[in-house]
Amino acid sequence: MPPRKPPRWVQWTVVPLLILVPIGYVIISAEQSRDSGEEKQQQAAATTLTHLWPTKVQRRIYEVPIPSGSTPVAYLETNNWASSSFYVQFRTNQGGLDTFLAQVDTSRSALKDGDVTVSPKQARTVRWTFGTDRRWAGLKLKQHGDKPDHNITVDLSDTDHPVVYVVSTINFR
Question: 20 to 30 A Cα–Cα from 121, which one of 26, 65, 77, 82?
């Protein structure tokens, strides 16, 4: 018995679907790809702090563990041939500060009162000002190999809600 020919309406439905579904997929994929490229381009062109949480990948690469509940959080990533720097600012509480310091392998006792460890050049990059009317404490963490160095400065003027300023730098040389 020869195979039965499908009804004409099935042919008129299936053939266009076989053509239109892949075309729709290509159009949607192209639009999504274009959008993600624009977003990445905007982030790369940023010259001021972005008032959002940095991505998990950024926090992992630069080893900046922001405690949950910290708000507001802002960051900027800069890159050149010699180094990449990651600037992060966040307000936390006493426990959050202790957690952050423990996660970067240090403690509150390592903070030196009156010490602003973010350099003036680094501060200008993100428009941070470290005036004398605040209670500052800071420390520098130098690490070996390809691990990032950290300049950490903490504003302890509001002891219940300290503001943490971190510059994490990876040197390529």
Answer: 65
